[in-house]
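Following up on my earlier message about S-adenosylmethionine. Here are the inputs again, as you asked, copied directly from the submission form:
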Amino acid sequence: MADSSDHSEDMDVDTLVAQGSELVDAILRRTPLAEIQSLIEAGAPVWYQDDEGTSPLHAAAYVEDDALVRILIDEGAVWNAVDNLHNTAGDIALSLNNEKCYTIIRDAGIRSEMLLTLLSKRASAASSPMSLILRATDTTPAGSTDAFLSTRLEYTTDEHGQDICLVKVADDEEVGVMMGWERGIMQETVRRLCLDHENLGEGLKVLNVGFGLGIIDGLFQSLPTKPSLHVIIEPHPDVLAHMRAQGWYEKPGVKILEGKWQDFVESEELLCVGGFDVVYTDTFSEDYSALHRFFEHVPDLLAGPESRFGFFNGLGATSGLHRLLFEDLHLADVGIDVEWSDVDVFEGDTDRWGKTREYFAMRTYRLPTGRMRAF
Ligand SMILES: C[S@@+](CC[C@H](N)C(=O)[O-])C[C@H]1O[C@@H](n2cnc3c(N)ncnc32)[C@H](O)[C@@H]1O
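Thanks, got it. Here's what our run produced:
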């Protein structure tokens, strides 16, 4: 008896695997929708993933079939299943610039995230499965704010003469807090956040979180009209000393808040401003959940629909595009729409990291610019 039931369970699993594999193949072969629907109706599992981690949803994203993406989501496909390269179907849609497929998957994510939040509140759970995926476990100065703030920083130059700011994370390893070659990213960020801003002529009210090399703050100061208010939040004592030595404390319109953004984000100093035209954040040693928490404050910090929000998109912290999906999703959740644009960070230089740890490995940086959604 036991033998035969075990055998039939094996049979069931084998059948499901065969059906799942047939479904993925059929989608990748662009089989007509009606036939794919018949496979699903016959019991092919939409949650199946093959040896490479490809699910029917990944396959539908690859062939850019938005009608099928919608059907699979409605049938219960797992929106955030990752393949062996750590990409979700949403990452694939995004990398193919297929906005329709991406939006359907993202919206499924928002729905399930809202449900998870509700469930976790009900169950008083400390964290949702998503925060488990995204939480960093690094306790070195690169991954722990407390360790970072009590470690000395060094301002120096790399072999190409570019400014760098380094922190030692182990006897034989240094991590760049900020590298001079990231200037191109900061330039493009400021261009997108400020240059066509309707309040530029009267001097923008700017909030920047994290000074680093001061590249973006220098660029804000070089706008055609200087900011009418330029608030910088910075906690690291060595960075603050560097700012003092460079005269940042004396610059008109500049206000330096010594501490972490967490210390000020709900304070009078920020909230009495009446809203910033531009908010930018680029911190160090914080994981994605911290950025996610910052996102939740952004609507209160911005002046209105014409205001802009930017952040350093730390691609290296998880796996490339995978993280973009969460960023987009969580910003949509707080009413901010993001536009992504590409910045080429490679510029023919193969050794831009020197001896420091690489924090993103892609040639193209996906630069986010957020705005409050108009209702
Ligand atoms: C990558 S650098 C910023 C680089 C800057 N965007 C530039 O253009 O040079 C990160 C900075 O964030 C600061 N930082 C780290 N944790 C922070 C926090 N919780 N709040 C504010 N700043 C923080 C670090 O001390 C460091 O100066």
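One observation from looking it over: The pocket of S-adenosylmethionine is lined by residues 145, 177-178, 186, 209-216, 233-236, 239, 260-262, 282-286 (CB under 6 Å). Hope that helps, and feel free to reply on this thread.
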